[in-house]
UniProtKB/TrEMBL annotation:
Residues 57-128 form the O-methyltransferase dimerisation domain. InterPro entries: COMT-like, COMT_C, COMT_dimerisation, SAM-dependent_MTases_sf, WH-like_DNA-bd_sf, WH_DNA-bd_sf. Residues 333-356 are annotated as: Disordered. The keyword Kinase does not apply. The lineage of its organism: Eukaryota, Fungi, Dikarya, Ascomycota, Pezizomycotina. PANTHER family: HYPOTHETICAL O-METHYLTRANSFERASE (EUROFUNG)-RELATED (PTHR43712:SF1), PUTATIVE (AFU_ORTHOLOGUE AFUA_4G14580)-RELATED (PTHR43712). It comes from Friedmanniomyces endolithicus. This is O-methyltransferase domain-containing protein.
Amino acid sequence: MSSSEVIRHLIEGLHSSATPGDDLYSDERTRIKLLGAAQGLVAALTRPDEAVASITHGAGRHMCLQVANDLGLFDLIVSKSRSAHEMASVTGADEKLIVRIMRMMVAVGFVEQSGDGVYSATPMTRVMTLPSVKAGVEHTLEGLDILQSTPEYLKKNGYHLPRTMTDTPFQFARKTELDNHKYYAEVRPETMKTFQVFMDGLYGGPARAPWWTWYPIEDVLAVDSDVAFVDVAGGNGHQTAGLLRAYPGVKSRLIVQDLPEVIEGIKVLDSHIERMPYDFLTPQPETVKGARVFLLSNILHDHPDNVCHTILGNIRAAYDSGPLQDTDLGYDRAGDRSTASATRQRYHDVLPERRS
Ligand SMILES: C[S@@+](CC[C@H](N)C(=O)[O-])C[C@H]1O[C@@H](n2cnc3c(N)ncnc32)[C@H](O)[C@@H]1O
């Protein structure tokens, strides 16, 4: 097929991805199908030089977002449309710098510009004012030196995948022996706080439906037990807080565990939820033994297999007859089967009696 025929075929595919009456944005299945078809069409229409440049210049977009955040430009525009001149006088930045940053923001659709040079808000501008979104932009930019060091790290170690948490591009870049979370907790507590705010909202999500809307947790909570639920490495406890909002009548104990520095940094959490400093590489404390559910949300993907075995092994030694819930299994519903099956395999390796 010629390029033109391929493009025509993709346009037809795009049309047939949506049937009349479909809710094209709110229905997740339809949205993902259309997005895939549209991305295929964009890829076919993109010249090779444009495709490479969009990757190599990507970090520049990220940098502009951070400067816009630091200057509070999204907050300024969300409250009122403004010119670059106005924003320069409010922020003290050079007007030309504001124009350049805003040029990028207009190009990516994060703001709109009218003919008279006035910038106004789009739905993305509003998203950019959310604390978790700002924190996500900042935290991911903070880690760019690790990506930059990765080719050098791999060259030096003969292109082998890391097998431990303490010999990775992170330690190579930051010249530390600590694993990344302990490094942030102990050496850069402010960055750890930003990371936790990021995890509270993950770019303003929901990236996926909250797990308690598709997992039959009410059956578990209905059983009389001392500890109902343990959120292992639960950060600021936003998952447990969401569960409690959905099931406010729960009487049994609900527990959030994380590194001591993270637990101490929790600012707001319902008093029914216990805060427990705990290192998941060590045995689970006696006080959580027999818990009905252990939640691992966004955890196992961070670690090599042997560490996942340790984390899961510590949970296995503590759980009684209750289920072990990893929200990453929810990826099945969003279509990422590879993550789900890799996670399942890890469970099966360490919890063979639960093979289904
Ligand atoms: C990707 S975040 C996930 C947080 C939360 N479960 C969520 O879904 O938002 C990983 C969490 O693991 C915690 N963590 C890392 N190493 C840990 C350890 N050795 N023991 C306990 N928690 C740890 C981090 O502090 C962080 O809160």
